[in-house]
Write a structure and sequence with these properties.
159 residues; 0% strand; elongated
């Protein structure tokens, strides 16, 4: 295959188009930067706006997490039993899961460590499937029994 040359006239037109696109990007970025400076939240206090955003994001994340947990348990258990299972989790379990998630979110090596650990655990459990299924059922049953009759900290999401 030979080298194809672009006629000078066409090359000049392409160069001008790229230059115009670069200018448009710069102008758009400048407009966005100006808008970001003038954006205001519900309060004139920036710290209050940050607190509102933080609370809203954390609340939304908690609701989404509960919905996913209910969906995962709902495939196999009745909604009432799923609620009991989620209510029966210990404080230590919740804190451990939170700590592991923070390690994973903190850095790339932390994420790799957590993902590797979860993959190893999954592969190990799959190799011991029968025993692990029975062990998991026993743990779930214990959690459901501990969650029966407790205060309703876990909201109904479809039950």
């Amino acid at each position: 295959m030979g080298v194809t040359t672009v006629p000078r006239k066409v090359g000049k037109g392409i160069g001008n188009g790229v230059s115009k696109a670069g200018t448009a990007v710069k102008n758009t970025a400048a407009k966005a930067r100006d808008k970001a400076v003038t954006l205001r939240g519900p309060s004139p206090n920036t710290a209050t706006n940050l607190a509102i955003a933080d609370i809203a994001l954390r609340g939304g994340t908690a609701i989404a997490r509960r919905a996913v947990e209910h969906a995962l348990l709902g495939k196999r258990y009745t909604p009432a039993k799923a609620k009991d299972i989620l209510r029966g989790r210990s404080f230590a379990q919740s804190m451990l899961h939170t700590a592991i998630a923070r390690v994973a979110m903190g850095s790339a090596p932390g994420a790799a460590l957590v993902m590797g650990g979860l993959a190893a655990k999954t592969l190990y459990e799959r190799s011991k499937a029968r025993k692990q299924r029975a062990r998991g059922e026993a743990e779930i049953q214990d959690m459901a029994e501990e969650g029966e009759g407790e205060s309703d900290l876990v909201p109904d999401l479809g039950a």
